[in-house]
Design goal:
Blueprint (H helix, E strand, L loop, with lengths): L2 H9 L3 E5 L2 E4 H16 L9 E5 L4 H12 L3 E4 L6 H11 L3 E4 L4 H11 L2 E4 L19 E6 L9 E5 H15 L6 E4 L6 H13 L3 E4 L5 H10 L4 E4 L1 H12 L3 H12 L3 E4 L6 H11 L4 E6 L3 E5 L13 E2 L4 E5 L11 E6 L6 E2 L3 H6 L7 E10 L2 E7 L4 E4 L2 E4 H9 L4 E11 L3 E10 L5 H9 L10 E4 L13 H9 L1
Parallel strand pairs: 1-10, 3-4, 3-5, 5-6, 9-10, 9-11, 11-12, 12-13, 24-25
Antiparallel strand pairs: 1-2, 7-8, 8-18, 13-14, 14-15, 16-17, 17-19, 19-20, 21-22, 23-24
Helix pairs in contact: 1-2, 2-3, 6-7, 9-11
Protein name: AMP-binding protein
Organism: Aquirufa ecclesiirivi
Family: Belongs to the ATP-dependent AMP-binding enzyme family.
Amino acid sequence: MLYFQQNARTFGDSVALLSGNSTYTYSKLIDRSEQIAGALLLDQSDLDESPVAYMVEPGFAYVSSQWGIWLAGGIAVPVALAHPLDSIKYILQDTGAKTFICSASFTPLLSDYCQEAGVRLLIWEEMPQSDQTPLPEVHVDRGAMILYTSGTTSLPKGVLSTHHGIESQIKSLVEAWKYTANDHTLCLLPLHHIHGIINVISATLYVGGKVEFLPQFSPEEIFTRFKQGALNVFMAVPTIYFKLIAYLESLTDRERNELKTCMQAFRLMISGSAALPVSVMEKWEVLSGQRLLERYGMTEIGMAISNPYQGERRAGHVGMPLPNVQVRLVDEENGVVEGQPGEIQIKGPTVFKEYWGKVKASQEAFTEDGWFKTGDVAELADGYYRILGRNSTDIIKSGGYKLSALEIEEVLRTHPSVEDCSVVGLPDEEWGEIVAAAVVLKSHSSTDELNTFMRSKMPAYRVPRKYVFLSELPRNAMGKVTKNDLKVLFIS
């Protein structure tokens, strides 16, 4: 029996999910999951690691579909609700999925293509409500889930994790962040990314806690839920905190103080999936009384590094290795470095198995001795890791220097006219790359004013040589700035 099935039976009549105007117990959740597993199996005894795509509303439908696929022996492939048909086709063709579970609202988008492609389309609302089908024994080393990378530099790759890998990720977080059955968390993150799937839903349900769903982002609705007093854990991405801060600053002093009192009662608030600007962390702490816990992870490794639950949460740093995760920094020759920046490499049971159907890419992702090469560069000081950026997008090689785009962004954000910014490296014959900045202004400023300010804060070789002013920065579903899209704006 898989861990979530056993746990759900143990927690029984305790509330697992709150979605819409309904509550769902663990018993109801696992019963529905077993029904879905039966519908998937039909006359088979085991899906035997066949990929099954699903595109369903967040909440009861989502979790029961995921668990149902797992109970039938399949590999769960979550599809983003906002994906256009071409992106969905890519996932179905890449995984070879021949079964697709969807909410009824998505049938107009999917039905014609699925019929043409020979994909069995199951409508979640129409799946059987009874029938007890014998379920297969699923070994923990089997494939469990395929999540797709963002595909910012190439076509998205399917990241295959096993049941053992997923449970290892969950156990590591439960130990580090002290999840308990008293936890009640709000899920408003996309559920085709690891942040929402593992950190919010899976880890909370692992210990018998409650997950409440918010179908659409709304600062007003989020704070309404906060004021109800039941929530005690909140996880979001930096862009969400940025928007919540803007909303709080629009309120009266009395309203802000009322919400601050509510938020101070939370046991934990976390930021992840993109670098947390120090300015956002500091503003949030003033407005909420909560010191955000920043951590580091990615699709291939789950969460790997985290600021401590108890202890100093250091601004601008992602903390220390999580339980059962090994971390090292290496140079370009793959030699371990100390006292200087290096690429983060990760090893342990939380690391993914392989890129689906991509043998060469899977081999190239690991060192000969089994370390996963993240492509992210960090430095280590006093036991805390500090991310300097991604080798491909955030480390700018200019005139013999390796510059961190994230460090330059932090300084630029301190200018009183700058609301947000992103720094990239542009190709240059003389320098290799030059520093360029995309800026969102909250009040008028000029290139000359920004240059004067930056030259007073850092050496000239770090100061941006080009600027472009935007109304907003291009971002993906998890709030990460898509820097390759930015580079085009400077070249065009």
